[in-house]
Amino acid sequence: MWKYMNTPRKQISNLLVSIFFPAAAYDDILPQITPSMVGMPTAAKSPPELIPPAGPTRGGKLPLSCIDKTVGGFVHLIQVFPPSSLSAAHDDQGPTAAVSAMRSGFARALVPYYPVAGRVAPSGLEVDCTGEGVWFVEAAASCELADVDGLECHPLLIPAELLLPRPPLGEKLDGIILMAQATRFTCGGFVVGISFSHAVFGGQGASRFLTAVGELARGLPAPSVAPVWDRDAIPDPPSPPPPFFTVLTEFRLVTQVADISAESIERVKDEFKQAAGEGCSTFDAVTAVVFKCRALALVGALPDDAKVRVGFAAGTRHLLHGVLPAVDSYYGNCVCLACVATTSRAARESALVELVGAVREAKEAVAAGFADWRRGVYRHDVPLDYSTAFLVDWSRLGFDEVDYGFGLPGYVFPCPHDDQANFFATLLFVRPPAPRRGGIRVLLRCVQEPHASMFAAELDKFA
User: 77 pairs with which residues across the strands?
Assistant: First the structure.
């Protein structure tokens, strides 16, 4: 393990972005092809093309919110569309027409979402509405989706960089807000790779934009939700977070995948309802399961009285009614940090219903914590060590409900699951690949090799 002393807050913030907003840090880094990838399937890419707005748009500069300014970099997203999913809107015209309609959807969506056609200013504090457009790439893979297991396995069986868009050589990534790539596989299936700026889009906001692209690609006259900018409606806290320095430890984290079945989730929900007399969410149940399984896997690695934690990005959109003129139309960032904490021994020995209760208490504290943040009071100082895991829930953002004319995706996941982020233990919730819907798939980089087998064995009890 390597230790990094006296790390400035800005660097720590950038590292935290890579955890709370998966694959979002390191603006200009995507996985590179290595000798171990030789012999893997390939994809031939067309030169990137700019798609400008389909009509006139406003110019000028728009400010980012105080929350937007705390995040940055790109989020890389992959949507997998099996060959059977080509929707009725284009199934009589073929995939070429579907991709053409997708291009049109982007062009039309950039009119109401005109800031997305611009560029983030070098200061990182505002967007310059230049109307340039978004980069779009078409690609053809050398194999069927089945040859790469439908992209369901991790690590992927095709280099991720072949499925994700890049601008032309010489074009800097700095300032780009969104890029897209449509890759056709020989079986007729498609993969859409999206890279978007997290300073401009929250997760839900990016999903709404892509939903609008799909709606317009399928011939709807306008997006079902009209977007608003309104970043200046969120006031800056009266004081910035206090400066601090810390010690970062680099771990050798192992990539794992676990499917928590719908039956196991319902069992935990039922047990909690019987014990507490009230219901709980899927998020509550799965978070409690993973929290307990990780604590059991780390027995011996941490003292019984050591604090163990799960930090998670909690949505605050519901807390901005009366602040934002149109909450549902807002596509910026609306999150704050929440944290579940107990001792290592308590996490191992507590019944699941008790841990579900702890998760619910952490969620209930979000309103007060966000109110404190708006007043310049900062509650959480979560240690960045092996005792803490950070969680992001992608299962409810809506990326799996986007139809560009290919039908609904069979599987959606952030890519890559940041194999370079070994400073933080991470958990990502996504919906399992179709048809295994109903449960939750957890993409994990939260234990080191000595603890991986026990962690997997504990998680298997809920498969």
Answer: 194, 414
- pLDDT tens digits for range 109-163: 999 999 999 999 999 999 999 999 999 999 999 999 999 999 998 889 999 999 9
Residue environment code for 225-259, b if the CB has 16+ CB neighbours within 10 A, otherwise e: bebbbbbeebeeeeeeeeeeeeebeebebbbbbbb
Catalytic residue among 154, 403, 417, 418: 403
Token output for 44: 């031939």
Q: Is 305 annotated in the active site?
A: no
φ and ψ at residue 350, rounded to 5 degrees: -70, 145
Q: Which of 153, 169, 141, 172 is nearest to 44 (CA)?
A: 141
Catalytic residue among 76, 90, 154, 198: 198
For residue 451, indicate whether it is catalytic: no
State pLDDT tens for residues 368-385: 888 887 787 776 667 888
Which residues have CB under 8 Å from 91's CB, separation 6+?
Answer: none
The first and second tokens of residue 224, run together, are 């079902």
Q: Are 48 and 363 in contact (CB under 8 A)?
A: no
| Model pTM score | 0.89
